[in-house]
């Protein structure tokens, strides 16, 4: 069955924001974008969780959106993080992304203020109705403090511009409920759950580990699409420990930036309150990268 956000099936990568001397390093950022284009990645998602949007100023956030859209130049889709716990601010950022030429908007559920389900509905409804961009609802209650319940997402699916869900609840039951009741494109928000979620009908992943091994994540998604579950399982098992380290050793994107530094692709710099891996964690990560064949 065709889904509303089918154009975003496959691999999207939640790209890092490179820093150098506490400033955004646009030269390194350009190299990261070209790396994803060369790999055949379908879409990049800047200024999300992995892109450290909480520590960017509003002007920096807007400049990154504009820079990524301009650099991508329609050679790869761009779905920037534009969510906020203020509906007015989320709408403002969405319009910035739309004007910049983004292809969709990644809308994290409002965090900290813990809206009711009706509050979630009205928040996403207003943005969807006042923007022309396809909207991807990013549901990650482990960070936001509250789940957008399936019933709310089912209501939102009736809106024309709500086309996708980034599913990061960790619940196959929730994903299955949404998939059974809507024609939304569901994308995994947890790398290690990509195969399980695709097995019940999800169409791809917005990936962290794709910053390092995009071709391998594409191979996993392609294998599922071909119905070659044995090959997909091989990729899942190969990727599993790497995925677990990226999200399990410490808070995202701390392990990812450490890995990219080890691989010579980033300075590893972050802004407070994000701090580097402990020495033991770093040694564990280096062991995983070596075992995978990256070092």
Automatic annotation (TrEMBL):
Site Part of a proton relay during catalysis: which residues? Answer: 49, 112
Q: Share an example GO biological-process annotation for this protein.
A: diaminopimelate biosynthetic process
Keyword field: Amino-acid biosynthesis, Cytoplasm, Diaminopimelate biosynthesis, Lyase, Lysine biosynthesis, Schiff base
Which Pfam families does UniProt cross-reference here?
Answer: DHDPS
- Compartmental location: Cytoplasm
Q: What residues sit in the active site?
A: 138 (proton donor/acceptor), 166 (schiff-base intermediate with substrate)
Coiled-coil region(s)? none
Enzyme Commission numbers on file: 4.3.3.7
User: Where, by residue number, does pyruvate bind?
Assistant: 50, 206
Q: Record's NCBIfam families? A: dapA (TIGR00674)
What does the sequence similarity comment in the record state about its family?
Answer: Belongs to the DapA family.
Specify the protein name. Answer: 4-hydroxy-tetrahydrodipicolinate synthase
State the organism of origin: Lacipirellula limnantheis
């Amino acid at each position: 069955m065709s889904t509303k956000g089918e154009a975003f099936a496959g691999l999207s990568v939640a790209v890092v924001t490179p820093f150098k001397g506490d400033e955004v390093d646009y030269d390194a950022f350009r190299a990261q974008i070209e790396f994803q284009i060369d790999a055949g990645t379908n879409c990049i998602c800047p200024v999300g969780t992995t892109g450290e949007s909480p520590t960017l100023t509003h002007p920096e956030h807007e400049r990154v959106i504009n820079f990524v859209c301009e650099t991508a130049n329609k050679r790869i889709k761009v779905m920037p993080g534009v969510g906020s716990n203020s509906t007015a601010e989320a709408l403002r950022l969405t319009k910035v992304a739309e004007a910049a030429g983004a292809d969709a908007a990644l809308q994290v559920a409002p965090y900290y203020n813990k809206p009711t389900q009706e509050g979630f509905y009205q928040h996403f409804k207003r943005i969807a109705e006042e923007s022309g961009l396809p909207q991807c609802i990013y549901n990650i209650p482990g960070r936001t403090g509250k789940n957008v319940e399936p019933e709310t997402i089912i209501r939102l699916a009736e809106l024309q511009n709500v086309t996708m869900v980034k599913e990061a609840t960790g619940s196959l039951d929730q994903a299955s409920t949404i998939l059974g009741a809507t024609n939304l494109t569901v994308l995994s928000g947890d790398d290690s759950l990509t195969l399980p979620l695709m097995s019940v009908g999800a169409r791809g992943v917005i990936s962290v580990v794709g910053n390092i091994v995009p071709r391998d994540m594409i191979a996993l998604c392609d294998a599922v699409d071909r119905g070659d579950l044995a090959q997909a399982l091989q990729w899942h098992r190969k990727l599993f420990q790497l995925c677990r380290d990226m999200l399990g050793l410490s808070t995202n994107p701390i392990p990812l930036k450490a890995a990219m530094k080890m691989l010579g692709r980033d300075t590893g710099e972050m802004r407070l309150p994000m701090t580097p891996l402990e020495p033991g964690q770093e040694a564990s990560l280096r062991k995983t990268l070596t075992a995978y064949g990256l070092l």
